[in-house]
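Input.
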Amino acid sequence: MKEKDNNQDLNVEEAQPAYDVRYTYADYIKWDDDVRRELIDGVIYLMASPNWRHQGIVVNLVTMFRNYLKGKHCKVYLPLDVRLNFETLDDTVVQPDLLIICDHSILDDAGIKGVPDMVVEVLSPSTARYDKTLKFKTYLRAGIREYWIVDPKTETLAVHILKDGNYITHAYTNEETVPVHVLEGFTIDLSEVFKG
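Output.
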């Protein structure tokens, strides 16, 4: 495991927005066209459909989390609309590949209004830069305590742990066991995550 401090400002190119207009959640819920999209700071980002490898990793992770959380207070969820700043601008709606919720009061019929305890994004060629930069900054600003970025291509995992307003990053390879910081005592064997 390698660790580094992410206190530096990120100066990277971000994903290209779909349109040059600002929107809110009120606009977002009117779109009924089955197009996958996220809204970050009022800007729409279109999302490609995931491939089989991506979905296999998500299924493996969900199974592990679900088995561990059976009978416990926290729950694991697949992509839902997560409104990270609903109390202010309400212009950010993300759909992480997997999320852990321990505060059930943030759940509503439309998804989640508030900040999950943990989110996981599995990279795909079309979203890698977006997940590592724009979503990284968005999750950090929202105060998500643990953010995992899974890379199917290199079979590695970057775990970002919130500490004093910044993320501390731990890097893992596919042969390591990873502690889940928001779920004390729970670890995940990455060799099982990347099995096809």
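The longest strand covers residues 156-163.
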